Amino acid sequence: MRYIVFSGGKMERYIIAGKKRLEGKVKISGAKNSVLPLIAASVMNNGVTHIHNCPKIRDVLVMAEIVGRLGGKFFFSGDTLTLFTENIRSWILPEDLTGEIRASVFMTGALLSRFKAAETAKPGGCNIGSRPIDQHLKGFRALGAEVNIRHGAIMASASDLHGSHIFMDMVSVGATINVMMAASMARGNTTIENAAKEPHVVDVANFLNSMGANIKGAGTDVIRIKGVDTLHGTSYAVVPDMIEAGTYMFAAAATKGDVLVKNVIPKHLEATTAKLEEIGCDVEEFDDAIRVSASRRLGRTHVKTQPYPGYPTDMQPQIAVTLALANGTSIVTESIFENRFKYADELARMGACIKVEGNTAIIDGVEKFTGAEVSAPDLRAGAALVIAGLAAEGVTVVDDIVYILRGYEDFDGKLRGLGAEIERVNNAKDIRKFRLRA
Ligand code: EPZ
């Protein structure tokens, strides 16, 4: 059994010497927001599951550890995660891990499906809003489960799960995935209306079908599920991470670089590509790669985050940082989460001119950023601050990179592969040494 060992604590930082054009090729890993529900869904079968193209990120280990604590076993071999779930006997999630990540909520739907019971603490996750789970619970109840919240824990149980016609009050990626899992072995047919259409929702549906489920319509706003009696093990490759890909596309734009982003599905990035072209980047699409280059100062735009296929909320900090260096005034509207501009103050310390009013940021582009010590408030904002450091004059230190390590595989290594001068450090001595060299 080979386990990956994760470092990456609060003390770790990135230190960056900016003003380097990113150039070259970068290979995108499997999607974080797909592989996490896939690991949860693996507990629905009592066989062996191989998940290929599995990114080595901290959240994957946390989810795999949860499977281990329930009685399952797992090991990594290259980019394949293998899970043995036959001996799982518990449906009570370990509190110390559940609160770490949002994706632990997927275990509720998966355990309810297999054991007709699940007990889990409220999920954790990036602090970008209140992130309620009422739509998840609404779906479970519609399928016949009794769900109570006691001392912050979700207690769900059902003598029998039956099909239902569920209309989501708002488009929710997590609730769509969770209800799809809970309905997979319910008796009869389930329809989910107003379903989320993200590529990772489609990936989870394809994964469940590869285990023997009967799900149609994923990727549209109506998903139909015919309950089956049992699910078997499977071997499945995770879809490429469109958000990781977009992050490198904006890093190329912000540093006026020229980067070929490989192992992507260009269709998943249409909204991002459209915005990059609109602000003046050259974007070239290939079957499984996208090339982004920028040779002059970029222009302004307005962007509003929307459910897929609209502009993704997980790419909001990355475009905001890029627009903060553009020529003109841009407006970024965050319509999915209520608290996703926490990076604005950090960016202002680097010279950005960004004013947040409610769920809108008004950004007056400046000629340059200057390096500073900044803190990553959450996963995508952290990645965006690294992009700012890559573009800035001087040295930038990004603290609290534990958030970034949750969702980006080998982020500093891949950036160094593109010519960035960036290192992971965890003490003042290393920072002094880097500054002397920079
Ligand atoms: C998933 O979060 C992703 N996380 C998020 O990515 C992503 O930003 C989000 O989908 C939207 O694409 C994972 O997949 C682990 P939602 P999720 O349910 O499922 C409200 C990242 O950076 N809502 O689609 O939690 C909710 O408050 C992370 O990788 C309810 O009101 O998002 C939000 O305003 C950040 N009740 C909106 O819906 C519910 O029961 C969309 O949330 C559920 C959601």
How would you summarize this macromolecular structure in one to three sentences?
The protein has 438 residues and is an alpha+beta fold. It is built from 15 helices and 23 strands.
Count of alpha and pi helical runs:
15
Give the proportion of residues in helices.
25-40%
Poorly predicted regions: 1-7
Strand arrangement in the largest pleated sheet: 21-22-1-23
Largest sheet: 4 strands, mixed
Distance between the termini: 42 Å
The helix-and-strand class reads alpha+beta
Form type: globular
Rg estimate, integer Å: 22 Å
Number of E strands? 23
Strand content: 15-25%
Which small molecules are bound?
Answer: ligand EPZ
Average pLDDT rating: 94
Which tags fit this structure?
single chain, 438 residues, alpha+beta, four-stranded mixed β-sheet, 15 helices, globular, binds ligand EPZ
Protein described:
By secondary structure, the chain is α+β, with helices and mostly antiparallel strands. 32% of the residues lie in helices and 24% in strands. The strands form 6 sheets. It has a 4-stranded mixed β-sheet, with helices on both faces. Strands 2-14-16-15 form a 4-stranded mixed β-sheet, with helices on one face. β21, α12 (379-391) and β22 (395-399) form a beta-alpha-beta unit. α1 (32-42) runs parallel beside α2, α4 packs parallel to α6 (173-183) and α5 packs parallel to α6. The model is unreliable at 1-7 (pLDDT under 50). The structure holds ligand EPZ. Ligand EPZ is lined by residues 32-33, 36, 102-103, 126, 128-129, 131-136, 170, 172-175, 196, 198, 313-314, 336-337, 379-380, 407.
